[in-house]
Amino acid sequence: GAGVSQSPSNKVTEKGKDVELRCDPISGHTALYWYRQSLGQGLEFLIYFQGNSAPDKSGLPSDRFSAERTGGSVSTLTIQRTQQEDSAVYLCASRLNTGVEQYFGPGTRLTVT
Amino acid sequence: GENVEQHPSTLSVQEGDSAVIKCTYSDSASNYFPWYKQELGKRPQLIIDIRSNVGEKKDQRIAVTLNKTAKHFSLHITETQPEDSAVYFCAASSNNNDMRFGAGTRLTVKP
């Protein structure tokens, strides 16, 4: 079946602009995660959605970052007033409610010029 | 919150040798510890995991050990092959909720 998909695959934006990154999880997966991976670095947890529960936003680095998950499926990560340090690959992952394995999407490479 | 530290950041071994990557965690409530492998330009994929009710798990050339008292866990790869070259991430979570990853280990297996 289809895996996790993300769009766009690449995004170049000017400093100060807002960007929206999209994640389509695997159908039926109730848990969804966003991570940030800077060049050569680890996976930085950003936010976690589980079903209809309030999301765990504890990893969001600033109030310029926000995320929504509509209808328990598609999620959008929004970065307002982008800064150069926001340049990174943003990865989304999903898993079954009863599962343990997170399935990652291909990521969106964001470059802020 | 949970904090996961991973060492070493880079590791180079000869083909056929063993490789060991170590992680420590801070939250005693963490009970699930997966390891992900990320090949160059690809997405991370789960290779093995362990829960806190066991001390060791093995899958062919890969094994993971867990010491709950000391709050550390390790990945062991035996008989390494060039295709094992990748970045490996450890992670920890409590009841499979939010997941915290280590900074990663870049493993290079030299033929």
Description of the molecule:
The complex is a heterodimer of chains A (113) and B (111). Helices cover 0% and strands 46% of the residues of chain A. With 113 residues, chain A is an all-beta fold. In chain A, strands 2, 4, 5, 8, 9 and 10 form a six-stranded mixed β-sheet that branches. A four-stranded antiparallel β-sheet of chain A has the order 1-3-7-6, with no helix packed on it. The termini of chain A are far apart. Helices cover 0% and strands 57% of the residues of chain B. Chain B has strands at residues 4-7, 10-14, 19-25, 32-38, 45-51, 56-59, 62-67, 72-77, 86-93, 99-101, 105-110. In chain B, strands 2, 4, 5, 9, 10 and 11 form a six-stranded mixed β-sheet that branches. In chain B, β6 and β7 form a beta hairpin. The radius of gyration of chain B is 13 Å and the shape is globular. In chain B, 34% of the residues are buried. Chain A binds chain B through residues 33, 35, 41-45, 48, 50, 56, 58-59, 91, 95, 100-102, 104-107, and chain B through 1, 6, 32, 34, 43-46, 49, 89, 91, 96-104.
